[in-house]
Amino acid sequence: PHKGFFGDDTGLNGVRLLCDKAGEVTSSEGPRGAWSRPESCPPGQRLVSFRLRVEAPRGLWDDTAANAMAAICSGGSLLEGRGGPQGTWGNWSLPCPPGAGVCGLRTRVERPQRGGDDTGLNDVELYCCS
After folding, report:
1. Residue 5: is its pLDDT beyond 50?
2. Contact between 98 and 69 (Cβ < 8 Å)
3. Residues of the domain holding 91
4. What is the superkingdom listed in this entry's lineage (predicted)?
5. pLDDT at 123
6. pLDDT at 4
7. Rounded to whole angstroms, how far apart are CA atoms 77 and 9?
8. Within a domain: residue 4?
9. What DSSP assignment string belongs to 10-54?
10. What is the CATH number of the domain that holds 63?
11. How many whole angstroms separate alpha carbon 102 and alpha carbon 120?
12. Is there a domain that residue 2 lies in?
């Protein structure tokens, strides 16, 4: 999480996938924060499911939206990012079919609100490929 000016916190500001054959994919990202240490599946395994920890809207209080992401590898390893503690974990996404793995993503990121309540990243979709 990142605390902006005047106590306006944001949670996640972006998600980046590091591909096993080199290269990376980053969807839209908010302007705050720094990338944390990468999490990786063990060799030969693929990312197959994920979930987000999301803080529900708080009305007049400071909203952060998505705060952390966790993922499961094809061999069952759990990867969990070091996001903020706010919110509750959502359900796991449907897993990729056998033999497939995550190969792309799309994120929903709120633009800076210019004095309003910034949230950063609000939603993630991951796509499976064989």
Report:
1. no
2. no
3. 16-129
4. Eukaryota
5. 75
6. 47
7. 31
8. no
9. E-----EEEPTTS-EEE----SS--------PPTT--EEEEEEEE
10. 2.100.10.20
11. 23
12. no
